[in-house]
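Regression test case RT-17, inverse folding.

Input:
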């Protein structure tokens, strides 16, 4: 049952894990209605989808220290590192797949009054 549920979840959405940091903790509260960022996933044809889910993940301090060593981050920001899970639909509202064989690039975009940040990935056919 667990395997079937996990397979259904995997096939139902594109999941992206993101570590975020900011000098003010409220700037990385992506799940709040007052969030300063609009988060979208965009393909190379300009089609975009909104997250189905935005979940702040609980991460043990040891894991945080392994990914972001203390000497690499300022003491003032230590408490503002936060891991997130973003789940995006794998289909557009009309039912067509978001990522198709023609898709070559997808971009995770954070945009708001503070600016814009993007991370892009090349898509390869399997």
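Golden output:
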């Amino acid at each position: 049952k667990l395997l079937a549920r996990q397979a259904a979840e995997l096939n139902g959405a594109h999941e992206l894990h993101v570590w975020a940091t900011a000098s003010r903790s409220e700037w990385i509260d992506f799940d709040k209605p007052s969030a300063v960022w609009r988060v979208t996933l965009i393909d190379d044809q300009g089609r975009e989808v909104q997250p189905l889910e935005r979940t702040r993940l609980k991460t043990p301090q040891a894991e945080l220290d392994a990914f972001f060593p203390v000497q690499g981050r300022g003491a003032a920001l230590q408490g503002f590192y936060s891991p997130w899970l973003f789940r995006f639909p794998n289909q557009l509202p009309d039912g067509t797949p978001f990522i198709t064989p023609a898709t070559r690039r997808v971009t995770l975009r954070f945009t708001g009054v503070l600016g814009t940040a993007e991370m892009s990935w090349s898509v390869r056919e399997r």
